[in-house]
Amino acid sequence: MRHSGPVEESGLVATGERTAPGLPDEEYWFSRHEIAYRWIARRLASRLPAPGSVIVDAGAGEGYGAAMLPGRVVALEYDATACGHMRHSYPQVAVTRANLDSLPLRTGRVDTITCLQVVEHLWDLRGFLRECRRALCPGGELIVTTPQRLTFSPGLGRGDKPVNPFHVEEFDGEQLCDLLLDAGFDTVETRGVHHGPRLSAWETAHGSIVGAQVTAALTGSWPPGLRDAVRSVTTEDFVVDVDPFPADSARIAAAQDLLAIAWVTA
Fold first, then answer.
1. Full-prediction pTM beyond 0.70?
2. For residue 223, what are the CA distances in angstroms to 15, 59, 193, 210?
3. pLDDT in tens, 9-49
4. Number of other CB atoms surrounding residue 185 within 10 Å
5. How many distinct structural domains can be found in the chain?
6. Residue 163: its pLDDT value, please?
């Protein structure tokens, strides 16, 4: 589900920290986020959750992703303007303004927590993951996506400060898996979000589409053809791994985004 009007109508400002529907020059990023939400929505719908099950979208931003999820959805977001926008645009979602350092959730009562493209922004990531572990019921799961450091910021080492001013830290598959296990989760499964054939062909001809967009943002100048290419991107241009892979596999290392599912078994 996409909100039909420009985000600016509700007071949201396009700062580059979050993406949203209705921003043509961010269609690559929006579709890359949206494909993960769609994958998660299908997964949750196929599991036929019990009546009363609670799904929490932590760091929901504009709210389009929370609105895609099935069942009873609670969106947590710190930005007050974004919360107001969500309440107006997606009335089916219960919106709570919250700092992710301390989740306003009862212990052991949540079935699923989704957190898409958020963990790289958090100063107290380890505290947030422990809070998720606390809030989830036995059998509950946390689903996280985040940019794969090895492809998003080639050459950036573990623990190095990212060039992206909105990112605190970026991760590879092993790091993300270890963080989730250290937070007390019992099992972690990793997948990747990858470019499909059309984007792969574009990169063969022109180089990294991520690098080109970063350069365009920094210089304020779009090379010929890049803007049209970005604006034409849809979710069909991305692929989510059907099967999980080891966190240190070459398949995960080549992903654009990491997708990790962490379970509480008891």
1. yes
2. 21, 33, 26, 13
3. 455 555 555 677 888 999 999 999 999 999 999 999 987 66
4. 24
5. 1
6. 87
